[in-house]
Amino acid sequence: MRLRNRSAYAFLAPYLLVFAAFWVWPIIDSFLISFQNTRVNPWTYHLSFNWGRLFGDPAFYNALENTLIILIVQVPVMITLATVMAVLLNSPLLKARGIFRFAFFAPVVVGEVAYAAVFRLMFNVDFGIVNKLLGTVGFAPVSWFAESHAAMVLIIIAVTWRWAGYNAIIILSGLQSIPEDVYEAATLDRVNRFQQFIHITLPLLKPIILFCVVLSVIGTMQLFTEPYLITNRGGPGGGTETLGLLLYRQAFQSTNFGYASAIAYTMAALAVVISLLNLWVGREPK
């Protein structure tokens, strides 16, 4: 038995070494860097230099507020939309379901730069199709890139468009695992479709929806692409700057790696806390 265990660990050793070198050690090292003053050469340990600045930095609180706004507004909207899409995709009345499933999943595989460029064109204040459509129903053109609230709405729309279909496919897999016998029994008891959805489908989908919520929370806490590419690096005036974008600016523009590491661990801690809160709220009653 011991020989077999040694053989197994010998085969695992190359992977474990790579895993330790490129995943475990960088995590430990970045945590240590968060306690160092990286504005001097050589770097020196200063336990409160970065963490003390973090809790008194207006830029951090602005990025945190923007991130939480997107989290609180966008995630519920996206999960609700994804659930409705999954139900429609699972309908036996829908023809060519494979094509529709691919179409809803396709935004995830579209290149980030390409999709950001399309959104910038669509929401252009002068010739964008969105303002053209608003004009046809009597609304004034919206300065999507010059007004903070409008830019935030644009980010929420873009993120929802990109990830709603992805979550819908995950929820669809949960829908297809629900036995048809449950619905047949409910139909015999004269339970209508809406009541079946509320009292049967949603409770059985609860673990899948919770899984999508946790994934979405983690993704939102790391949000970088949309504010960087669509609203021109978190503009206007930091109105859409997220924690991920602030981390990037500190690490790769200001080369302040210590402060960036403190921001990164704050992001990770917030993601863990919010995810655990979701798991606690969604736990099964004993």
TrEMBL record:
Keywords: Cell membrane, Membrane, Transmembrane, Transmembrane helix, Transport. CDD domains: TM_PBP2 (cd06261). GO terms for cellular component: plasma membrane. Residues 64-278 form the ABC transmembrane type-1 domain. Its main location: membrane. The keyword rRNA-binding does not apply. The chain crosses the membrane at residues 7-28, 68-90, 102-123, 143-164, 204-224, 257-281. It is a multi-pass membrane protein. It is found in: Cell membrane. GO terms for biological process: transmembrane transport. Gene3D superfamilies: MetI-like (1.10.3720.10). Belongs to the binding-protein-dependent transport system permease family. This is Lactose/L-arabinose transport system permease protein. It comes from Rhizobium leucaenae. The lineage of its organism: Bacteria, Pseudomonadati, Pseudomonadota, Alphaproteobacteria, Hyphomicrobiales.
